[in-house]
Amino acid sequence: MGVRSASKRSIRLQMARRDDRGVAQALFSRKEVDAIRPLTSAGALDAVFVFMKDIGFIDALQSFNILGYKRMMLPLAHFLLTYLAKILSGVPSMNALPEVLFSNTALMEMLGFNALILQEGLCRRGSHRRAPGKNPPRPFSPQTVANVLGRFTLQESEALLNRLISLMAKGSLLDRELAVIIDGTDLVVPDDFKDLDACGTRTRIEKIVGKSGQITEVVVVERGFKLVTLFCQRLRIPLAAKIVKINDHESQSTMALIEQAKANLEGRARIAKIYMDRGFIDGPTLHEIDEMGITFVIPSKHTMAVTTDARALAACGSGRAASRQRTVYKGRGKRKLESKLNTELVGLERLCSYDQYAPNFRDHHRTRKNHCPKPINAVLIREWDGRRREPGEELVFLTNGPVDDPFVVFDDYDERSLIENTLHRETKQSFSLGALPKKRANALYAHTYMVLCSYAIIYGYRRYMASKSDSDAALWPPQNPPESQPTTHRAANLRTPPQPFQGVGMARWRRQLAAENADKVIVFLDSAYGIYDLNQLAALTGIRVKMTQTERARIREVLAQYGIDFPP
Q1: Among 14-18, 184-188, 479-483, which is the least confidently predicted range?
Q2: What average pLDDT does this structure show over 144-153?
Q3: Quick check: 164 pLDDT over 90?
């Protein structure tokens, strides 16, 4: 087995770099170029890869190594970049790689694979087993990529995301203060998963409605893992994530996630608020979060004493009541109906009936005479959008923040559901979270964290592009003002997402980029490439095309940026 030529070895070790000016001057001087390709999906990723290079993530991948990777013919970074390109391009499965990704020569050459590699493949391994006339995998087989991902440990996979978030924080792509959501989603594996001993097992009751309307309860046994993520909704960036067994309690991961996020942020940003569902409720953990100066909001359980206490106090008229109405419309024209939806809340301060909300509760709960829980605030919901709660059935939110205006707590927590509608939904639908490259635990770890990396890269890139067009954002390039100079940052607020994130999901964004690049080509020259529309290419190569005066003026202006005078 050997690499077929030294030229492969010399070119494949680095990604192609974008140099529109240099390649344009070469075209104008009639120099021979290596290739001209339609831009297609490479255009969607070109700017993204430039962004990854700018923040240092490409360099981080090139220096990244794992203990299980011993093959030296191709650097590990190329497999990682190829798999990132697969996820970012929306390629659904490993079997689709040759047809959808490897056949995209523009993209593969941009990743550093030259024409010879794409034509002949990397090595002759397995050539004697191929049928006559069957081409070798170009540049390598999908199974090779899957095998590489199967060599990652859980810690090595997690390190990829941690390094990316650290670079984003270092590049000033995050707000100074962050409001975050913590939540989990199940990663259920199929029955033929090879590492069932590494999975957790969970039993649940599923109700099935028959044709006659009869309800039958069926015991369902699920095996797999749980992905628990600490997520900044405003920026749509996962700051830290843990993969645990599907039967592990989510609250056990809370502090580990917060500590990992703090390490990733490296003091350049601070977690100011955190919102969790009731599955994460744990008194000592909440007390520790409070000691860290982080505001939390979490629903209480109906069986808790503090819930009963809050309901009784509100029934007696204690606390600060607040209400508001919103108007909704149904139907159109003459059938349009207007209705008023009322929401009524009560803010309650300093409740002392949450026994577990105390330091070292697990050590001192047996000596209850000496036990003194810490006071906690609550927001009770009497009515939510016109749905009145019966006395004794009201929802209760617990918080260490102020409740003089209970709607601040209520509105912030109401946004917690967005993690299901953004991170979880998009990673499963647009990033193929459930499409494992290999039915192995290590491959699942690597795939999951690379999906999270891809998600963070896309939304980091979109924030990067938004900042370049917003003179007031002052987010890029990174600024390093003196310590004494005050800096302005947006407040930690989940309800005001940046404009580029409103109404544009990943699938729609991919379609927009494809439409924008429909009339563009990518030109390769040595280790560089340039991107031009067809009129620009015609002008650079001397092809005479009929143009209006407006089009000619635009082309003249563009070529002037490359140091080229438009031909008469």
Answers
A1: 479-483
A2: 90
A3: yes
Is residue 200 assigned to a domain? yes
End-to-end CA distance of the chain: 55
Mark which of 412, 427, 442 sits at the end of a domain: 427
Q: How confident is the model at residue 504 (pLDDT cuts 50, 70, 90)?
A: low
Mean pLDDT of 473-490: 38
Helices (H) and strands (E) in the chain, counts: 20, 15
Give the domain-ending residue among 427, 442, 468: 427
- What angle is formed at CA 219 by the lines to CA 216 and CA 202, rounded to 5 degrees? 150
Other Cβ atoms within 10 Å of 79 Cβ, number = 19
Residues 270 and 399 in one domain: yes
pLDDT-wise least confident of 311-320, 371-380, 441-450, 535-544? 535-544
Element (H, E) at 441: helix 441-469
Phi, psi of 180 (to 5 degrees): -125, 160
Query: Is residue 8 scored above 60 in pLDDT?
Result: no
Instruction: Check residue 19 and give its pLDDT.
Output: 86
Residue 136 included in any domain:
yes
The rounded distance, in Å, linking the Cα atoms of 458 and 510 is 11
Does residue 215 share a domain with residue 69?
A: no
What value, to the nearest 5°, has the Cα angle with vertex 314 and ends 343 and 182?
60
Which helix (H) or strand (E) segment is 521 a member of? strand 520-525
Q: What is the pLDDT of residue 240?
A: 97
Q: Which helix (H) or strand (E) holds 218?
A: strand 215-232
Residue 376, domain CATH: 3.90.350.10
Q: Are residues 355 and 375 in the same domain?
A: yes
Give residue 166's Cα distance to chain centre: 14
Query: Phi, psi at residue 250, to the nearest 5°?
Result: -65, -35
Q: Do 139 and 214 belong to one domain?
A: no
- Taking only the tens place, the pLDDT of each residue in 395-429 is 999 999 999 999 999 988 877 766 666 788 888 88
CB neighbour burial string for 336-350, b if at least 16 within 10 angstroms, e if fewer: eeeeeeebbbbbbee
CA–CA distance, 178 with 274 (Å, rounded to integer):
9
CB 442 within 8 A of CB 150: yes
Does the pTM exceed 0.85? no
CB 22 within 8 A of CB 525: yes
Mean pLDDT (the chain, rounded): 80
Domain interval for residue 138: 1-149
Q: Same domain, yes or no, for 257 and 360?
A: yes
Instruction: Decide if 118 contacts 109 (C-beta within 8 A).
Output: yes
Total number of domains in the chain: 2
Quick check: 128 pLDDT over 80?
Answer: no
Q: Are residues 60 and 161 in the same domain?
A: no
* Residues 503-532: b if buried by 16+ CB within 10 A, e if exposed: eeebeeebeebeeebeebbbbbbebbbbbb
**Six token digits for residue 310:** 């809050």
Q: Does 365 score more than 60 pLDDT?
A: no
463 touches 173 (CB < 8 A): yes
377 beta partners: 399
d(CA 470, CA 483): 24
Among 514, 460, 513, 454, which Cα is nearest to 86's? 454
